[in-house]
Amino acid sequence: MITKIIPRAFILFLLLLVFVFAAPVLAQNYNVIDAGEVWPQEVVGTYTENGTNNGKPCYSGPNSYWLYNTQWGGSSYWFIGKPLGNSDINAVEVRFYYASSNSTPPLNTNFTRTGNALGAVKVTTAGGSPPSIPGSVSINTTTASSFTSGWADASSATGYKLDVSTASNFSSYVSGYGPYVITIPEGTPIASRPRSHVVNGLSPGTTYYFRMRAYNGFGDSSNSSTVSTTTIPAAPTSQAATEITNASFKANWSSQAGANGYLLYVSTTSDFSSHIINGQSTSNNYDTVSDLLANTTYYYRVKASNSSGQSGLSGTTQVTTGPPIPEVLASSDIQTNQLTFNWQTSTAATGYYIDIATDSSFSSMVTGYSNKDVGNVTTYQVLSLNPNMIYYMRVRAYNTNGTSTNSETASATTLDAMASVTTDSVNDIDSDSATIQGNITYLGAPNPTQHGFVWSTSENPTIADNKVEKGAVSATGIFTSEVTGLHPNTSYYVRAYATNSAGTAYGDQIAFATNKQILTITADNKSKVYGDADPALTVSYSGFIDGDNESVLTGTLNLTRVAGDNYGTYAITPAGLTSSNYEITYATGTLSITKKALTITAEDKSK
């Protein structure tokens, strides 16, 4: 057997041939691009090889358009149109053509437009481009449930995609708008291409964000700039009025989402045929309506508003102002600790509130008299007041509609009150003096300008009698004083007292008697010489007052001495006198017997 060796290079060549002819042929794609204000834009896009026509490849593109070769007038032409193979250049959907018998479409050259197209297109193997970003994106009209968006036409777009969200980052979308696709129908004239869209079904008072993209057969443009709008708020709910007075009330209503203000309407007629307030603006969900008539019915309603517009009107609320302000009258029955507050009847009032204070600004209210409901009366006795104090009073009328504002302020001063004192004791009684103790237990009002003690030999002494004055006093407590200049052995009556503008108050009297005056009768000292007769014995008096002398004494003065005649001293003792006014004491004296001079003379003698 003969073995033939086949060269290795030949084997490799055979394998290459097998690969080339066995490999599938990749389909060719072409792009039809806008070569200048093309219309309709539906023809622009990518065309993919999809069979043959007229013995040459044909290509299917966007919106059922084809790029194909066919015979027209005995010559080969490349057409852009539909349906496939249509060679009638007058047909509505045959748009562009180019004379060529090549097996592939001519590249990078303008096709001729038929009478059913505008502008120019080219066929290229390079990638086409999506349309430009829509410009002049705006929101033109906003209602409570919709807004109208607008934009400038993107000429190469075959449609638009709209995004609507309540989040500025478009993390979520309004139902149906993530995105909402607008397809521009084939054959739409340029002037009729969509440049606006109404977004419906929105919630009132809500901020929405809008953006869009244009698209064609080559893809989507980038997102436009984001614009936003807040829908008009829903109509508020009118609520009951509060803080109703005779001349004002506070109108209230519900807050509305998205509202940055409210417009208030007030009328005296339920049909609002006339207004006393016509669209007064406020940023709150309430407003105070002032300068009204008392006991009068008013009607109010309100709108919510924001930068997009105003809501419809709320329902109507009816309110009747309170009764008129009462007129205060002069107070009566004013005493030290009470008075009667008076005022005139207020029409339609069913009751009254009163305030009583010790200051005209009513910052220091009397306990129990702050907004005190006294019922349907026009006079009220105010008790437990302090004497010598100015009180300020005001009154408000009320009924089921509301309460009036304050009346004018009335004032009244309670009467002065005398002090209270006690006479406690009399101590250290002497013949002409005594110490008295008293106590001021209540200063009265105003404070005493003088206090002290009064005394007399008659009962219930007053400041018209003898007195000791201790001056003004500003605190309660014990005080004492010595009363002098009294008569011995005399009955006296004494009282403590305190004087202010209300008068002089006295304590109970205390009776006491002074002691007798001490009268000392002292025997005078005497002397004699032994053997002489006793001298006359005498006394001296000490203690007489008021010009008295021994003549006022009764009884007989007896003077005795101790018996004895020898040299020495002998006591002399007085006694025997009495007195009703003097307490007599006796003091002894002495009789001194001196020695008798004795001369002993020696007799002369002689011898």
Query: Could you tell me the strand content as a percent range?
Result: over 45%
Q: Report the radius of gyration as a whole number of Å.
A: 66 Å
Mean pLDDT: 92
How many DSSP E strands?
46
The tally of helices reads 1
By helix and strand content, what is the structural category? Answer: mainly beta
Largest sheet data: 8 strands, antiparallel
- What count of domains describes the coordinates? 6
Low-confidence stretches: 1-6, 11-25
Portion in helices: under 10%
- What is the topology, as strand order, of the major beta sheet? 7-6-5-4-3-2-1-8
Globally, the shape reads rod-shaped
What is the distance, rounded to the nearest whole angstrom, between the alpha carbons of the first and last residues?
A: 245 Å
Structure, explained:
By secondary structure, the protein is mainly beta. It folds into 6 domains: 29-124, no CATH class; 135-230, Immunoglobulins (Immunoglobulin-like), CATH 2.60.40; 238-320, Immunoglobulins (Immunoglobulin-like, Sandwich), CATH 2.60.40.10; 328-413, Immunoglobulins (Immunoglobulin-like, Sandwich); 420-513, Sandwich (Immunoglobulin-like); 517-594, Immunoglobulins (Immunoglobulin-like, Sandwich). The chain has 1 helix and 46 strands. An 8-stranded antiparallel sheet has the order 7-6-5-4-3-2-1-8, with no helix packed on it. Strands 11, 12, 14, 15 and 16 form a 5-stranded antiparallel sheet that branches. Strands 19, 20, 22, 23 and 24 form a 5-stranded antiparallel sheet that branches. The protein starts with 7 loop residues before the first helix and ends in a 13-residue tail after the last strand. The model is unreliable at 1-6 and 11-25 (pLDDT under 50).
